[in-house]
Amino acid sequence: MSADSCLFRFRQASLGYAGSPVLRELSFELRRGEKVALLGESGTGKSTLLRRLRELRPTEVAWCPQQPGLVPMLSAFHNIYMGQLNRHPFWYNLANLVRPLAGPKAKITELAVKLGLQHQLWTAAERLSGGQQSRVSLGRALYQQKPIFIGDEPVSALDERQADELLRLICGQHDTVVLALHNVEQALTHCTRVVGLREGRVVLDADSQTLTSAQLHTLYQRR
Ligand SMILES: Nc1ncnc2c1ncn2[C@@H]1O[C@H](COP(=O)(O)OP(=O)(O)OP(=O)(O)O)[C@@H](O)[C@H]1O
Q1: Angle between helices 160-173 and 130-143 (to 10 degrees)
Q2: Whose CA is nearest to atom 13 of ligand 1?
Q3: Tell me: the pLDDT tens digits for 81-99?
Q4: In the predicted model, what is the mean pLDDT of residues 4-28?
Q5: 45 lines ligand 1 (CB under 6 A)
Q6: Does the Cβ of 47 fall within 6 Å of ligand 1?
Q7: In the chain, where are the structural domains located?
Q8: Mean pLDDT of the chain
Q9: Is the CB of 90 under 6 A from ligand 1?
């Protein structure tokens, strides 16, 4: 593996907020091409690590946050389009807001079919269900078309079949993927590597093929 295949490297790092560390003595490397699942109990620091990764390579990362953060009055189409807002001049974005342009319309319609949102494309985000909103948020991240996808529980509001289909889509479209998940089966099926966190420390880091779901469930057992 060449040195420049390393995208992120932490050595005994401390990550947290305003002087209060969440992740301690973090030693962690992530190489191009890896598909990594972060697992661990709520509050253990998964989002904190994902946010740091995103800050380190902002232009290369397609970011799918835990909270959809949609503009309520805008349609699913326009919310997805926002994934490429900063690639176009102001006049182009304004024209597309008033009357969707042919190019974005074709691409977003195709994406909406994959997301199962073809019938909700022109519905305002505030009128969508929680699962539909989270698919719009995922669509916005996919529409960014960046090489690295970082998702904070991007499929947790979806049923199992939909979640599997969309995880396949995410992993197929991106060279490198880092996902905070709570579902150990999804982690083993879709990711090549699993990193387990407990109380702000990495307690497991292994190739998915060497792991069992029973081992991963121990990350959630009370001590
Ligand atoms: N903006 C913030 N300012 C201060 N503390 C924060 C902030 N965001 C998160 N924390 C704290 O950092 C710790 C880790 O939170 P984090 O969101 O990284 O956990 P998580 O593993 O992603 O949890 P979940 O599975 O519930 O999303 C928690 O104790 C939380 O209260």
Answers
A1: 10
A2: 43
A3: 999 999 999 999 999 999 9
A4: 91
A5: yes
A6: yes
A7: 1-60+146-223, 70-145
A8: 94
A9: no
- Confidence bin at 2 (pLDDT 50/70/90): low
The residue type of 84 is Q
d(C-alpha 212, C-alpha 223), whole Å = 20
Gap between the Cα atoms of 128 and 118, Å rounded: 13
Highest CATH level, class, for 1-60+146-223: alpha beta
- Where helices occur in the chain by DSSP H, the ranges are 46-56, 76-81, 90-98, 102-115, 130-143, 160-173, 184-190, 213-217
- The two tokens of residue 117 are 């949102």
67 lines ligand 1 (CB under 6 A): no
Distance 66 CA to ligand 1 centre (A): 11
43 Cβ closer than 6 Å to some ligand 1 atom: yes
Overall average pLDDT of the 23-30 stretch = 92
Distance 190 CA to ligand 1 centre (A): 25
ipTM of the complex: 0.96
Q: Which amino acid, residue 166?
A: L
